[in-house]
Amino acid sequence: MLSGNKRLNALLGLGIGAFLIVPWYRVERGFFSFEWPSDFPFSSDLAPGLLQIFAEGRVWLVLALALFLIGGSAHFMADANKRGRLLVVTGTIGILYMALQGLAISFTGWAWTFPETAFGALPLGQPAMGAGAILTSLIFVLFIAFGLAERGFMKGDAFVVGSISILIFLVTVFIFYPIGSMFAGSVQDFDGSFKPDGFIRNMQDPAIWSLDCVIGGNRCGVAWRTLFLAVMTGLGSTILGLAFALVATRTRFPFKKGLRLLTVLPIITPPFVIGLALTLLFGRSGVVTEALDTLFGIEPSRWLYGLTGIWIAQVLSFTPISFLVLIGVVEGVSPSMEEASQTLRADRWRTFWRVSLPLMKPGLANAFLIGFIESMADFGNPLVLGGSHGVLSTEIFFAVVGSQVDPSRAAVLAIILLSFTLTAFLAQRLWLSGKNFATVTGKGDSGAHAGLPKSLSVTVYGIVLPWMGFTIVVYGMILFGGFVKTWGLDNSLTLEHYARAFSVTFQDGALVWTGVAWNSFWTTMEIALISAPLTAAVGLLTAYIIVRQKFAGKNAFEFALMMSFAIPGTVIGISYIMAFNLPPIEMTGSALILVACFVFRNMPVGVRGGIAAMSQLDKSLDEASLTLRANSARTLRRVILPLLRPAITAALVYSFVRAITSISAVIFLVSAEYNMATSYIVGLVENGEYGIAIAYSSMLIFVMITVIAGFQLLVGERRLRRENRVSGMAKSNKIRIAQEKTA
User: Fold this and answer.
1) Among 704, 706, 262, 207, which Cα is nearest to 416's?
2) Where are the transmembrane segments (predicted)?
3) 161-169: long-range contacts (C-beta < 8 A, 24 or more apart)?
4) Could you give the C-alpha distances from 223 to 163, 174, 226, in angstroms and in order?
5) Three-class SS of residue 61?
6) What is the DSSP letter of 354?
């Protein structure tokens, strides 16, 4: 890292750029379109901060400039303690003032009544924050971070303090602020006055809390119904994920590559497509239903529409996530510990149950927590298969976009969902507290993994093989649907759907993308490829800080990150619209709001996967690097990250796939210019164009498989050196015999 003065010099350079070189306010045509330099700096909308103060009359920005200059003056102070105190004070006041002036002053003047009463009306307002204002806010955050480092916080490690500060800032802006905006609206009347009547009425609604049923039944209150479904989905996906991981790593299964492909397929499929495939198989007119009726006289029923159908679809969809989390954990269990158990005459079953499985606890707990939260937040599967038996996510959707808009009800349901998620999170922490699961250390490790007990091997094969067959059938239905004229009615083969969606022609010697799906396809690929590396980077950096660093409020910080994952995408979409449709931060209709949504919605998977993998890395690895005078940034880059390759791959794959297949939040955030694939497919389904929708989904699956393979080649595999102990002993014996002969 740079020294204190060099860090301040860098911030001063950024500050000069923020006030002189870039527009202070939001560029309507897009900052990265680079159309604005032609009118810069003399246009009132594009003027930099300094001209906004002295030429445009926005005098309230003087205080931001003054605070920046005061903080920059710390460069001339010799005492590190005083320098750090000045940076912390000016940074704290600066970031609070930037937020306050952004919220208090809107397009037309004061946004609040009391400052207008106290100071009088403003002659002009201000647009949303742009590059200059955002860069200045970031500088104030770094003032705080570098000031704390100067005062010895986190042992003076500026990289760690800066990372924590920026992550807290980003979490506040993109998680707490939008959710807070939505909750504030739930207890307000249309004129903005406080009115909690709707909130209280919905909190007491018996339709939410009714227990007049068998637990988990379709007539239960929506809260208990959702909780039961989430627990069952978490258990099912974790058991299946562990079975797949064991078959892939601890058996001689001949089709391991095919197994890995099948475990990835459900996660790279839009959820409503799996629901449609299950309907064609098991619905009242489904292939299996009609076959049972014809062969055995079993009358068709609606058993699929309800919690049973949702559970099948969710386990099918979320098992790959558990597999991606668990495979690195299963591979990381030390063979030497298993060999030590067998040396002490423990059989394979006892070794697995008492040694291997306990070392997998972090992965199992994280896999269950992710499955539980995914089920809570899932929207597509319940929408297609729920019928009249809704869950919290669909109830929130209909409370927002139904015939009677009720934001108070949506907020109440979101609070209930968060309480369930918090309970699961705390239970997981309690289960893992006080235990050490390190299996990868700086010491040599030898031997090969112990084989599975025969009974366990038969069991996992009995789970995996039928599930593989079921998955193949489901995806056969999806693939078949893209090549028939009318799925389920006219099954004659055709290529018409692919031609309409992805046709390409040559006009005037140039390639023209004439298919109706190309526009949303290229937009989706661009946004997904931008958001995936950002999601992985932020998630793994956060995991490093949580596992390796100790600071006040760490538990609250970790839960805040998980909160974005726990809230249904519907609520995320609505809260982003409410928060970012007006100053101080206006992003609606842009690609930036989609990228931000994907990064902070999907980041918890990278965090949980990184925590599970990093729990197995002994801290002596970090300490050895730091002892050799490497700073924390270099240690993270050269020591930790190479050992986290399974977690990096999982974070990249998951974030890329979710950016393409997400629907619940995206459907509120897309625009005519930036239309995502899933919202376009939903529009096709609503218009009855099922063939094109299936063809589009099939193309997305093929593209995602290709990109995922590219990610795996780019990141590579973690190589843990396992020497054969027997060969090592033989080599030692040869040396001893040679020495004896020489003697």
Assistant:
1) 207
2) 53-74, 86-112, 124-146, 158-179, 227-249, 261-283, 303-330, 351-373, 410-431, 458-480, 527-547, 559-579, 591-611, 647-670, 690-715
3) 163/541, 163/545, 164/545, 164/549, 164/551, 164/557, 165/141, 166/138, 166/141, 166/142, 167/538, 167/541, 167/542, 167/545, 167/557, 168/557, 169/95, 169/137, 169/138, 169/141
4) 37, 27, 5
5) helix
6) I
> Do strands 490-493 and 484-486 pair parallel, antiparallel, or not at all (unpaired)?
antiparallel
Chain segment 368-418, per-residue pLDDT in tens: 888 888 888 787 788 778 777 788 888 887 777 766 677 778 778 877 887
Cβ atoms < 10 Å from Cβ of 506: 8
8's tokens: 């301040």
Q: Is 362 helix (H, G, I), strand (E, B) or coil?
A: helix
Among residues 91, 32, 23, 89, the alpha carbon closest in space to that of 58 is found at 23
Closest CA to 614 of 562, 650, 658: 650
Structural tokens at position 374: 């995914």
Q: Is the pLDDT of residue 655 over 50?
A: yes
pLDDT digits (tens, 9 = 90+) for 304-335: 888 888 898 888 888 888 887 888 778 777 67
516 φ, ψ to 5°?
-70, -15
| DSSP annotation of 692 | H
For residues 125 and 101, is the Cβ–Cβ distance under 8 A?
no
**Contact between residue 385 and residue 275 where contact means Cβ atoms under 8 Å apart:** yes
User: What band does 203 get if pLDDT is binned at 50, 70 and 90?
Assistant: confident
Q: Are 98 and 137 in contact (CB under 8 A)?
A: yes
Strand partners, 203: none
Bridge-based pairing state of the strands 445-446 and 490-493: unpaired
**Closest listed residue to residue 84, CA positions, set 2, 152, 135, 141:** 152
Q: Where are the alpha helices (DSSP H) in 482-590?
A: 496-502, 518-548, 554-566, 569-580
pLDDT at residue 256 greater than cutoff 50: yes
Which of 10-14, 36-40, 566-570, 685-689 has maximum average pLDDT?
10-14
277 touches 271 (CB < 8 A): no
pLDDT in tens, 568-607: 677 788 788 878 988 888 888 888 899 998 888 888 777 8
Give the list of residues 6+ apart from residue 288 with CB closer than 8 angstroms, or none.
281, 282
Quote the CA–CA distance of 134 and 137 in Å, as a whole number.
5
Alpha carbons within 13 angstroms on the beta-carbon side of residue 584 total: 22
Beta bridge partners of 513: 504
Contact between residue 432 and residue 602 where contact means Cβ atoms under 8 Å apart: no
Query: For residues 29 and 21, what is the distance between their CA atoms, to the nearest angstrom?
Result: 18
Rounded to 10 deg, the angle between the 407-432 and 554-566 helix axes is 130
CA–CA distance, 381 with 359 (Å, rounded to integer): 34
Q: What are the E-state strand segments in 307-405?
A: none
φ and ψ at 206, to 5 degrees? -65, -20
Give the pLDDT band of residue 65 (cuts 50, 70, 90).
very high
Contact 647, 328 (CB under 8 A): yes
Q: What is the DSSP string of 596-641?
A: HHHHHHHHHHHHHHHHHHHTTB-THHHHHHHHTT--HHHHIIIIIH
**732 to 100, 336, 725, 728, 738: CA distances (angstroms):** 72, 19, 10, 6, 10
Rg (the chain; Cα; Å): 29
